[in-house]
Write a structure and sequence with these properties.
- The chain has 312 residues and is α/β, with parallel strands linked by helices.
- It is built from 13 helices and 9 strands.
- Strands 7-6-5-8-9 form a 5-stranded parallel β-sheet. The protein has a 4-stranded parallel β-sheet with strand order 2-1-3-4, with helices on both faces.
- The longest helix is centred in the N-terminal third of the chain and has 19 residues, at 20-38.
- It is globular, with a radius of gyration of 19 Å.
Length: 312
């Protein structure tokens, strides 16, 4: 069975569902699609397909990148929020899912609970693509890996230093690092920790792939000799304890002093949106080693890869 046949028709709910060789193939396809896009070479592999998009959370990068990518692939997208659907009146997800399945060739969904995307997947025959939940953000993970490869030439053996909320992006980077052989150091204040399920998966797979996942309160330990410094907001969407989080993470800012602890050729990453003056300073995000806008662009290329591979 070819790799394309292995992926066709599957759901894309979390990168924990895929083997490293499958993830590598997704990245190879994304890079090929990026080359085609840069050459303005047509690649309408999904002409005639229809893609539903349900977004319960606010979005800039995810919405625009998916809709642009769907257009590049020759498909048609349909965007809605739950408040304008019968979901708002109490229609169950299982009914909504089965109706969408009759109209569209795939569903892209951005919501809160991972159980929501899993329920859509249970009742749909066509692929469900997770565009972010509170637990994971697999589309961001693919884009991050692609960006690191573009700037560092590899993933295996690199040190990725993460500072910020131990939330969906952190969880996804833990999964990516453990599967692809990167060493990930996570700097967190006392009392904060990633999801237990994700941590167990990452630790188990890091051992298999001869890498490590380290959680430490020591910011210098986190950043020292890092190849990639990844900052994220201290307060993610939906959190009510914003001020408490700001105080707890205040000493974990990436600025000119703390960034100097990383390798001289380290790159700076951030999934955005970012809060300048909180998790990083303006000079870092606007500096010569910042690749945050490459990350943003690569969201589109990796999402196109997922769509072109998974949509039947």
């Amino acid at each position: 069975m070819s790799m394309r046949d292995r992926l066709r028709g599957r759901d894309f709910l979390t990168l924990m569902d895929f083997k490293p060789v499958e993830i590598k193939f997704m990245l190879e396809v994304a890079m090929d699609l990026k080359r085609k896009w840069m050459r303005k070479e047509p690649h309408e592999y999904l002409r005639g397909r229809t893609i539903a998009m349900i977004f319960e959370k606010h979005s800039t990068r995810t919405r625009f990148s998916f809709q642009a990518g769907i257009a590049h692939l020759g498909a048609q997208s349909f965007y809605a929020t739950p408040d304008v659907m019968q979901l708002a009146r109490g229609e169950p997800i299982k009914d909504t899912a089965r109706i969408i399945d009759r109209y569209c060739d795939a569903l892209v969904i951005r919501t809160y609970g991972q159980e929501i995307v899993e329920e859509y997947a249970e009742y749909m025959k066509n692929p469900v693509i997770n565009a972010l939940t509170d637990l994971v953000h697999p589309c961001q993970g693919l884009a991050d890996m692609m960006t690191i490869i573009e700037h560092k030439g590899k993933l295996q053996g690199l040190k990725l230093a993460y500072v910020g909320d131990p939330w969906n992006v952190c969880h996804t980077l833990m999964v990516c690092s453990s599967l692809m052989g990167m060493n990930m150091y996570i700097g967190l204040p006392k009392g904060w920790s990633p999801n237990k399920r994700i941590l167990e998966f990452a630790e188990e797979n890091a051992k298999k792939n001869e890498s490590e996942v380290v959680i430490t309160e020591d910011l210098r330990e986190t950043l020292t000799d890092a190849d990639v410094v990844y900052a994220n907001t201290f307060h993610s969407m939906g959190h009510k304890d914003v001020e408490e989080r700001k105080r707890a993470f205040a000493k974990y800012q990436i600025n000119s002093e703390t960034f100097s602890w990383a390798k001289k050729d380290a790159i700076f990453m951030h999934c955005l949106p970012g809060y300048r003056g909180e998790e990083m300073t303006d000079e870092i995000i606007e500096g010569p080693r910042s690749v945050v806008f490459d990350q943003g662009e690569n969201r589109m290329h990796t999402e196109k890869a997922v769509l072109s591979l998974f949509v039947p």
